[in-house]
Design brief:
The structure holds two protein chains of two kinds. Chain A has nine helices and 21 strands. Chain A is of the alpha+beta class. Chain A has three domains: about 220 residues, 3-Layer(aba) Sandwich (Rossmann fold), CATH 3.40.50.300; about 40 residues, no CATH class; about 70 residues, OB fold (Dihydrolipoamide Acetyltransferase, E2P), CATH 2.40.50.100. The longest helix of chain A has 18 residues. The two termini of chain A are about 30 Å apart. Chain B is globular, with a radius of gyration of 22 Å. Classes of the chains: A alpha+beta, B mainly alpha. At the A-B interface, strand 6 of A face helix 8 and helix 9 of B.
Chain lengths: ~350, ~260
């Protein structure tokens, strides 16, 4: 487990101040945030690669705040692999083993990891001729070869193309499952977190905006920043009414029971994929059916991002290409949009 | 007729002019002395001694720069601290200062009137007119070239590799020896070659600190002033040839291997 207590780290032009964070034993924790939010700085503080100004870093219950990186038993994998170019695959993996007493079962475990990552045929190869995915698998094996107590992953999928990204994402999930080790990953990509994380924290300018199970962050973002970050593109300031909230013509029931009114920021949001598009002649507009007009169609492979106007507000909808063709959508097309009040989230 | 862009023509013309400017005087000097003159000069023990002394002292300056300069180059490449820019400027000073001034500056510290000169004298170290003095001067003028080359070389190594090494259990020394050094040795070798090349050509500062024992550039100057062009040329040719062979060998040795 990792515990950060009132962690303060300063670098020129940026600071993380009084950050508290708990990563539970054996979980896959993802620290999410846009570029420049301080993710890597926090990761490097845990690894001992950045000087901590104040606060404490605990790894497996041990205070390592003032310990050098080599005494922390914390594995690190960077997005660019950072393999040693003068050593072959085998020597890269074995690099750290001389500094740690290895028990026979740890040796056996390493053999299994190398096998699981499909590295056996590559052992004698130069690391300079490996593909991006192979490099990242070697970096994983190298970090795990010293039996670390936690594994820190700094955007391990970012520099990979789509095929390798899926491959490494699966390897990470399998390794986490088979090793039962605490994984701490930082990324700016919410979809990676959604696939991998048990729990996550969303970071903005060095502050944690929300921390909790990944599904909860996805389904119930607590701040407008988190909402936008998890892809809730339709976010509007909401007016409070007796029954709940109002956004333009939309009446939205109040937030779930038990929600602390002080935590409400006065916004209402709906995910682009929660808008259901119907042909305009599908019946008269009802309580949940709204007439809409397509403004723009942004095709992204088999999915499509639509800009549309509903009730005088600009919305974004995500639909399959097949539906675009079926409904004959084009800029200026009229549609009916099914948007029941329960799709809205009060933030 | 094929159209040639004026930019290409201008680039080629100026490049050829510059190459001719560098090579013509050197080629002229190498071809002017007769083979007999060159042979006789080589038989002269004073000439051989001067060339060997130049190689020896500049080689020593390069080794000293390598051993003592590498840590500073590493610090400048890796650490951000107050006064770093100031140190970087100070390092370049020996390049800018007129060479005789370098000699005078070193001599002004080496006299017995100065505390350091007194201390050195008590230790039996003489700067004026000694090989030690020549090595000190050559190190002074050669160091900036070593430091700048190695600093750039270390900066080109991603710090993340060192971070990974530390996280795997290697301390700072082990990380330097197992990661930084194997990746930086080529720039260290190139730096040492640059340092030695600069040192071997030094005349202005050496002539002030140690006219004797005579290094090759001082001997070329002495023969020129005492006997004229004809007698100084063969010594210069042998110095150029020796350096050329040495530096070519080192360059070839330090070329990056073709990856397989």
């Amino acid at each position: 487990m990792i515990l950060l207590e009132r962690l303060t780290v300063r670098v020129p032009g940026f600071a993380v101040i009084d950050l508290d964070l708990e990563v539970r034993p054996g979980e896959f924790f993802v620290l999410l945030g846009p570029t420049g939010s301080g993710k890597t700085l926090i990761l490097e503080s845990i690894a001992g690669l950045t000087r901590v100004a104040s606060g404490r870093v605990l790894v497996q219950g041990r205070d390592v705040t003032r310990k050098p990186p080599e005494q922390r038993r914390v594995g690190v994998v960077y997005q660019d692999s950072a393999l040693f170019p003068h050593l072959n695959v085998e020597k890269n993996i074995a690099f750290g083993r001389r500094y740690h007493m290895q028990k026979p079962e740890q040796d056996r475990r390493l053999t299994e990891i190398v096998d699981q990552l499909g590295l056996v045929p590559l052992l004698k190869r130069s690391v300079n001729n490996l593909s991006g995915g192979e490099k990242q698998r070697v970096a994983l094996a190298r970090a795990l070869a010293v039996s670390p107590s936690v594994l820190l992953l700094d955007e391990p999928l970012s520099s990979l193309d789509q095929t390798f990204r899926e491959e490494i994402r699966k390897s990470l999930k399998d390794l986490h499952h088979s090793l039962g080790l605490t994984f701490f990953m930082v990324t700016h990509d919410f979809s990676e977190a959604l696939f991998l994380a048990d729990r996550a924290a969303v970071l903005s300018a060095g502050r944690v905006e929300q921390c909790g199970p990944i599904q909860e962050i996805f389904r119930q973002p607590k701040t407008p920043f988190v909402a936008r970050f998890v892809g809730m593109k339709n976010l509007f300031p909401a007016e409070r009414t007796d029954a709940g909230f109002r956004v333009g013509p939309f009446e939205i029931p109040g937030p779930a029971e038990g929600t602390d009114p002080d935590t409400i920021h006065g916004y209402a949001g709906v995910r682009p994929e929660d808008l259901t598009l119907l042909p305009p002649d599908d019946g008269p507009p009802g309580p949940h059916l709204w007439p809409g007009r397509i403004l723009e169609i942004d095709a992204r492979g088999i999915f499509c991002q639509l800009s549309l106007e509903i009730g005088g507000l600009p919305f974004s909808a995500a639909v399959g290409m097949e539906q675009v063709f079926r409904l004959g959508l084009a800029p200026g097309s009229q549609v009916l949009v099914d948007l029941p009040p329960d799709r809205w989230r009060i933030i | 007729m094929k159209h040639v862009d004026p930019f290409v023509g201008l680039t080629l013309a100026t490049s050829l002019l510059i190459l001719a400017f560098i090579l013509l005087p050197l080629v002229e000097m190498v071809v002017q002395p007769s083979v007999g003159d060159l042979y006789r000069t080589l038989l002269d023990p004073d000439v051989r001694r001067a060339i060997l002394l130049s190689l020896y002292t500049s080689g020593l300056a390069a080794i000293i720069s390598l051993l003592l300069g590498t840590p500073l180059a590493y610090l400048l490449a890796r650490r951000n601290f107050k006064g770093r820019k100031l140190i970087e400027s100070a390092i370049d000073l020996p390049i800018m200062i007129p060479h005789p001034v370098v000699g005078i500056a070193i001599l002004s510290m080496a006299g017995r009137g100065h505390w350091l000169g007194g201390l050195l004298h008590d230790l039996g170290v003489t700067i004026m007119g000694s090989i030690t003095g020549i090595v000190v001067v050559l190190t002074f003028v050669g160091l900036p070239f070593y430091l700048n080359t190695v600093k750039n070389g270390i900066e080109a190594i991603p710090p993340r590799m060192e971070n990974i090494s530390r996280s795997l259990g290697a301390g700072m020394t082990a990380t330097f020896l197992r990661v930084t050094l194997p990746l930086a040795w080529r720039s260290m070798l190139v730096g040492a070659i640059m340092c030695m090349a600069r040192a071997i050509s030094e005349f202005g500062a050496v002539v002030i600190v140690a006219y004797h024992p005579m290094t090759a550039p001082v001997m070329v100057y002495e023969r020129f002033t005492a006997y004229g062009l004809k007698y100084s040329q063969p010594v210069a040719v042998w110095l150029i040839l020796t350096c050329l062979i040495l530096f070519l060998a080192l360059r070839v040795f330090s070329l990056p291997r073709r990856s397989t």
